[in-house]
Amino acid sequence: MSDAELKTAARDLASLIRQSSHAVAFTGAGLSTESGIPDFRSPGGLWTQNKPIPFQAFMASREARTEAWRRKFVMDESFRSAAPGRGHRVLSAMARAGRLAGIITQNIDNLHQDSGVAADRLVELHGNGSYATCLACARRYELVWVRERFDVQGGTAPDCEACGGPVKSATISFGQAMPEKEMQRATRWTLESDLFICIGSSLVVYPAAGLPIAAKQNGARLVIVNREETPLDDIADLVVPAEIGPLLMAVATELGLGLDC
Ligand SMILES: [Zn+2]
Q1: Distance from the CA of 131 to the center of ligand 1, in angstroms?
Q2: Which residues have beta carbons under 5 A from ligand 1 (an ion)?
Q3: The model scores a pTM over 0.90
Q4: Which domain holds residue 254?
Q5: Do 201 and 188 meet the contact criterion of CB atoms below 8 Å apart?
Q6: What are the tens digits of pLDDT across the range 134-164?
């Protein structure tokens, strides 16, 4: 995409945002690649050697839980320095300026929170990898605690101190049920939206990818910002195959938003 094309696309998107009274952003892995977190569906590298363990396997044995934590420690080590990118900062500024009613994210990297988005403006569909919870009693554990217990026990996954249940990263693993409250909030925001802006999502992972379809069917305008094509490009009102950071910075300029974060 040339600079001129990017500017035109930014103007079009800013115009749609100005016309809307309830815009919702829906974000995926592509938003965080600028922060150095690779999309795990891309081939090669760390992800291939350290794939998340499917939920059923995690529940079935301590060996799998131990391996799941070992892999998570490896991945966290690599991305510990990740900070919000330009895309995160613009979305945060938009939310604070009342230009966005909310952000629904598929990401688990906590970067929306790190960029200053308030909890009541954010839905995390796939959980959050920056802490852990007991799957039996929902007690929260910090990763530092998990790491300590793991090491003290000679490299074994720890159990909940309160109930003995399995302690897992607070993400939604493959095969794990979607979080009910988050899905309800996301669905409500989607149906209330008059503009639904997908940013950096390949729109292939369901049920998350059902939200833009529901928004469009409910009369919202649908925008898709993604470097690669998506299966929903055909039903979108605006498709922008641009780099997210530069595009959203241009949108912020069009909207006259200051980025003070
Ligand atoms: Zn517990």
Answers
A1: 14
A2: 134, 136-137, 139, 160, 162-163, 165
A3: yes
A4: 1-37+84-126+178-261
A5: no
A6: 999 999 999 999 999 999 999 999 999 999 9
